[in-house]
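[worker-b] picked up task from shared queue
[worker-b] task type: protein-ligand structure
[worker-b] ligand name resolved to guanosine-5'-triphosphate; SMILES cross-checked against name lookup, match
[worker-b] sequence length check passed
[worker-b] input payload:
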Amino acid sequence: MDSVLSSEHVYLPRTVTRSAKILVAGHFGAGKTTLIGSVSEITPLRTEEPITEASVGIDDLKGLPGKTETTVAFDFGRRTLSPHLALYVFGTPGQNRFAPFWEHLFRGALGALILVDTRRLEDSDEVLGLFEERGLPFAVAVNEFDGAPRYPLDEIRQALALEDEVVLTACDARSEASSIHALIALVDYLYRFRRLEHLT
Ligand SMILES: Nc1nc2c(ncn2[C@@H]2O[C@H](COP(=O)(O)OP(=O)(O)OP(=O)(O)O)[C@@H](O)[C@H]2O)c(=O)[nH]1
Ligand SMILES: [Mg+2]
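[worker-b] inference finished, payload out:
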């Protein structure tokens, strides 16, 4: 995130009475770090390292010409979503070799936004399976990359074998408004399933 944030964004408003830890997950290169950079009101913490030759054959860079770095531990940002609710947003690493770190990230998380890329839908199976196994509620957002095929959301739901109740939306992880919209979809879902209580 390039902008220099003013101090009013650094301190939580006094009206905030509730906070929630949320994960942003998804396969390698789905746009997790980008989305957290778009939504965070504090300078996000990133743990990115250059993608090296050691990644050849492991990291599929198809369709990601500008991608030179990958998250090796986690991303962290914060977003006050309403006068009462602040989200602490943790991004997971996209590669299986960093999976041991996931245990720390899962702890205390109320839910997850899982990003998918239509150019590699099948890569999402593993991440979706992990959240289903854990029983951690999640919403799914299609990160609409330029030039990626567009499908109706109900076709994507079918392809990903998502239950009807799972919220499925589309976003552009580079856009603050669009990314916030996806986070709100997750939070609405958490309210609906009483993972989050309405507090004032
Ligand atoms: N065109 C377009 N590019 C995007 C979008 N979201 C992310 N990117 C680009 O796609 C690449 C991957 O984005 P990242 O945010 O690093 O993805 P990630 O999921 O954090 O990747 P890992 O941590 O390596 O798993 C970067 O070069 C981004 O600039 C998007 O919505 N549209
Ligand atoms: Mg990342």
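[worker-b] attaching auto-annotations
[worker-b] The CA atoms of residues 29 and 94 lie 7 Å apart.
[worker-b] releasing lock
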